[in-house]
Amino acid sequence: MVETRLIDGKAFAQTMRARLKGEVAVFTAETGVTPGLAVVLVGEDPASAVYVRNKGRQTVEAGMASFEHRLPANTAQEDVLALVKALNADDDVHGILVQLPLPSHIDTQAVLATIDPAKDVDGFHVVNAGRLAVGLDALVPCTPLGCVMLLKDTLGSLAGLEAVVVGRSNIVGKPLAQLLLREDCTVTIAHSRTRDLPGVCRRADILIGAVGRPEMIRGDWIKPGATVIDVGINRVTGADGKNRLVGDVAFEEAQGIAGAITPVPGGVGPMTIACLLANTLTAARWRVG
Ligand SMILES: Nc1nc(=O)c2c([nH]1)NC[C@@H]1CN(c3ccc(C(=O)N[C@@H](CCC(=O)O)C(=O)O)cc3)C=[N+]21
After folding, report:
1. Architecture of the domain made up of 141-268
2. Per-residue pLDDT tens over the stretch 23-53
3. How far is the CA of 1 from the centre of ligand 1 (A)?
4. Two domains, one topology: 32-123 and 141-268
5. Which residue has the least CA distance to atom 18 on ligand 1?
6. C-alpha dihedral sign at 95, 283, 104, 110
7. Domain 32-123, CATH homologous superfamily name and number
């Protein structure tokens, strides 16, 4: 039985945002440029609206400009593309984020392909995905970046460690695997069709849940002492009828087995926003040259 350490993403993200605020102040003083982030939200999804509001508030707190564009759910694809093109051409905008998921009548890849890769602070454009894969400078997806920051803070060097990423999405699983490979991990991407998923997970020194299935990863899937990063944010209704947030990992079962684990909330989520702000400053720096 080990004492399981809590990885405090909320505190780490707060420290990161304070440091960023200082860097933004210096950048603006030296260049006269205020980094700007534009967020596009199509539709009325209440959870998305909360995230967009949080992003806007934290952007302003860091000394950057926030531009919010809310479009009705029935907006035509060509109107979304026209807005993205206008933001591409806007010199006050250094970062563009189109909140996902988009309504089903809109072709997500067509929208992402229209974002100027140099303003693609989500790192979702194929140019950034490709640049990451071949080891060039790229805007890197925020959630995977936040995960690796927490891992390096917890473990130091990740070289040679067995990392198992459960989930193969374009926004988390695949780019996270690329980043872990860059840190010299031995990387396995597992998914719904993986044979003996519990057994594969038990190999992991670093176990990452990124599937979006509440508490799917059980305590006995975790190798004793492993570092567990929980990317899932699932809203579930408890026995008392109240809504609560749970991750992809059965957090209570992991206690006494995992060496360290991120909580939900207060783990990866806040890091995602801090990394978004960091990417916006990076994009502004590249722009100014
Ligand atoms: N283009 C795009 N980029 C995104 O990065 C993106 C997106 N679309 N669509 C939705 C998801 C979700 N996402 C979160 C960011 C922060 C928290 C976060 O800060 N969570 C806090 C609070 C959670 C709560 O209380 O609801 C926490 O985990 O502690 C959560 C979720 C970004 N996303």
Report:
1. 3-Layer(aba) Sandwich (3.40)
2. 999 999 999 999 999 999 999 888 888 889 9
3. 33
4. yes
5. 269
6. positive
7. Leucine Dehydrogenase, chain A, domain 1 (3.40.50.10860)
Is-above-0.90 flag for pTM? yes
Write out the binding residues for NADP(+): 167-169, 233
How many other C-beta atoms are found inside a 10 Å radius of the C-beta of residue 197?
18
151 lines ligand 1 (CB under 6 A): no
**Cα gap 266→285, rounded to integer Å:** 29
From 18, 124, 64, select the one nearest 10 (Cα to Cα).
18
Phi, psi at residue 140, to the nearest 5°? -100, 135
Among 16, 59, 233, 275, the mutation site with the greatest number of ligand 1 atoms within 8 A of its Cβ is: 233
Task: Confirm or reject: Cβ of 212 under 6 Å from ligand 1.
Answer: no
- 41 alpha carbon, distance to own chain's centre: 17
Q: How far is the CA of 102 from the centre of ligand 1 (A)?
A: 15
Q: Whose CA is nearest to atom 25 of ligand 1?
A: 265
Q: Which residues are catalytic?
A: 55, 99, 122
C-alpha distance from residue 48 to each of 98, 101, 144 (Å): 11, 9, 19
Q: Where are the domains of the chain?
A: 32-123, 141-268
Q: For ligand 1, atom 9, name the residue with the nearest CA.
A: 100
Q: What is the pLDDT of residues 245-259, one digit of tens each?
A: 999 999 999 999 999
The answer to whether 114 and 65 are in contact (CB under 8 A) is no
